[in-house]
Amino acid sequence: MAPAEQDALAAREQLFHERVRECIICTLLFASLYILCHFIITHFKKHTDFTAVHDDEDAAVDRIALGLCTFTLAVALGAVLLLPFSIISNEVLLSFPHNYYIQWLNGSLIHGLWNLVFLFSNLSLVFLMPFAYFFTESEGFAGSKKGIMARVYETSVVLLLLTLLVLGMVWVASAIVGDNAASRQSLYDLWEYYLPYLYSCISLFGVLLLLLCTPFGLSTMFTVTGKLLVKPRLLEDLDEQLSCTRLEEAVVSRRI
C-alpha cells in the first residue's frame, strides 16, 4: 500500500474514532441530564392529584407523557448549560493545551452539541410537548376500540390538524406582509427558515414572559425572606421598651 493511501486510511480511521467518541460523550451527557430531570419531575409530581392512577391504560399514558416531558426538560436544561459548558471547556483547553486527557473538549464536540440541542429543541417544541398534552387529554375516536393506539391515532390527527392550522396562519401572514415569490418560497424550506423563525419567536416570547414575571418573583422572594428572618434588635431603644413594660405592669396591677 502506498504511503498516501496509508495516510488517508489513518485519517479516516482517526475521524471515525473521533465521531464515535463524540457520540459516546453526547449520549452520556444527555443520559445524565435525563436522569436528573426525571428525579426533578417525579419529586414535584408527588404533590399532584394524578399520582395514584389505578387504570392500566391511564398509567401507561401517564408514563409516556412523563417520558416526553422529561426528555423536553433535559433538552431545555442542556440548552441552558451549553453556553457555560462551551466557555469552561475553552478556558480549560487554553489553560492545558498539551494535556492528552482533555483534548476531547474540542470545537467539533461543541459544534455537535449545538446542532443536537437545536435539533431536539425544535423537535420538543413543535412535536413532543403538544403530543404529550393532547395524548393525556385524548380518549380515542368515538366508536373505535379503546386502548393506547386509539389515543395515539387521535393525538396524531389533532397534532396534524394543529400543524396545518399553524402553517395556514403563517401563509396568510406572509401573504399580508409580503406578497412576493421570495416570502412564499422561504416557507417551503422548513429546516432553514420556518423552524428557526418559529424557535426565535417562541424564545422571544419566553424572554418577555421572564422579564414580566421576574419583578413579581423578586418581590415575593423578599417578602417571604422578611417573614422568615428575625429582624435585628441592635437599633431598638431599650429605655422606651422598659417604660412600656412598666406601664403595662402598672395597668395589670391596678386591675388586680
UniProtKB/TrEMBL annotation:
Gene Ontology molecular function terms on file: transmembrane signaling receptor activity
Keyword Membrane: yes
Membrane topology: Multi-pass membrane protein
GO annotation terms (biological process): receptor-mediated endocytosis; Wnt signaling pathway
Superkingdom per UniProt: Eukaryota
Subcellular localization: Cell membrane; Endoplasmic reticulum membrane
Keywords per UniProt: Cell membrane, Endocytosis, Endoplasmic reticulum, Membrane, Receptor, Transmembrane, Transmembrane helix, Wnt signaling pathway
Bilayer-spanning residue ranges: 24-44, 64-88, 108-136, 157-177, 197-224
Keyword hit for Cell membrane: yes
GO cellular component: endoplasmic reticulum membrane; plasma membrane
PANTHER family: LIPOCALIN-1 INTERACTING MEMBRANE RECEPTOR LIMR, PROTEIN LMBR1L
Family: Belongs to the LIMR family.
Protein's name in the database: LMBRL protein
Natural source organism: Glareola pratincola
